[in-house]
Design brief:
single chain; 308 residues; mainly alpha; 2 domains; two-stranded antiparallel ribbon; 10 helices; disordered C terminus
């Protein structure tokens, strides 16, 4: 018999067939086919998120991502099977069958939500176990928070790239005055703070079912490396700033260049990895376009490439 830990750890993935669902409220509902799809979506997302996290080499980020995912998986209340962890225990205890008849009164509104059946907007409410409703509601709430933080990242990233392009003009970057450098550095710091607000939620890339292109641990590792470059840019900029720039203006230039290089790559990654989360993709490409225009003017390559 497969244990609940096998599923909870991400070692195994639950995928129920129609005959595996024995709860009357669910299997006898006229939208059961769609409900089964939603149930399996919930199981797949959690499994893929566990797998994605398992390949993260940064121990601190890995812990934060794991804690964030576990929190969502344990969201639930009341008696019986009420969260995803308990759902796995239920399946294990019943030899792969779903028997729990605990659903909400109306069902879960599945259209245009992560885990739902957005391609079938007319489906609307589907009757699924309350444990999976709780998981998917928490998942969608988490995605909304991620969207808010990505909006901040997008705004700060676009602002600092635009500021550099506007202020520099035809000058060579290291000759820009201290005031401009401070403005650029503060912009990079804002970007860095925005990243601090999203790193623990990067497991949400696992909602992307169509392709593993942007959800592999290898590519996530490169993105975390790019985030590190932004942090490194802040540290190097601060060193140059404390030294009064002058002879270390080249260090400040390198810091800003690294930070600018990381911002668009992260924007491009987020746009692809989170494309199934409503509202996230808008505006990311603008950062890339502005960065490339600046690079062309300066005659430098600010790109950090992800190899797919």
């Amino acid at each position: 018999m497969v244990s609940a830990v096998h599923y909870w750890s991400g070692a195994g993935k639950v995928k129920l067939a129609a005959g595996d669902v024995e709860a009357p409220k669910i299997k006898d509902d006229k939208k059961f086919t769609y409900a089964l799809g939603v149930m399996n979506n919930a199981f797949r997302i959690f499994h893929d998120a566990r797998q994605l996290i398992s390949g993260v080499s940064d121990a601190a980020v890995k812990r934060a991502m794991t804690a964030d995912l576990v929190d969502v998986g344990r969201t639930g209340w009341g008696w019986g099977v009420n969260d995803l962890e308990e759902a796995f225990a239920h399946i294990a205890a019943n030899n792969g069958k779903w028997k729990d008849n605990n659903t909400s009164t109306m069902g879960w509104f599945s259209s245009d939500k992560i885990g739902g059946v957005s391609r079938h907007a007319e489906v609307g409410y589907v009757r699924i176990p309350i444990s999976l409703e709780n998981f998917l509601d928490a998942l969608n709430a988490k995605a909304s928070t991620l969207n808010t933080n990505l909006t901040a990242l997008r705004q700060h990233g676009a602002a600092v790239v635009t500021k550099v392009a506007t202020s520099v003009g035809d000058q060579v970057l290291p000759t820009v005055g201290t005031t401009e450098w401070t403005t650029f550095g503060n912009g990079i710091k804002q970007v860095n703070r925005a990243h601090d607000g999203i790193k623990s939620m990067l497991w949400l890339a696992a909602v992307h079912e169509e392709s593993t292109m942007h959800t592999s641990s290898e590519n996530l590792g490169k993105v975390l490396g790019a985030i590190g470059k932004v942090r490194g840019a802040v540290e190097n900029f601060d060193k140059a700033s404390k030294a009064g720039f002058g002879t270390v203006e080249g260090v400040a230039f390198s810091a800003i260049a690294e930070g600018l290089g990381a911002i668009p790559v992260l924007g491009a990654y987020y746009q692809e990895a989170f494309q199934l989360i409503p509202g996230i993709t808008a505006g990311m490409t603008n950062i890339v376009q502005r960065r490339d225009a600046l690079a062309a003017k300066l005659g430098v390559d600010l790109r950090i490439r992800l190899e797919y």
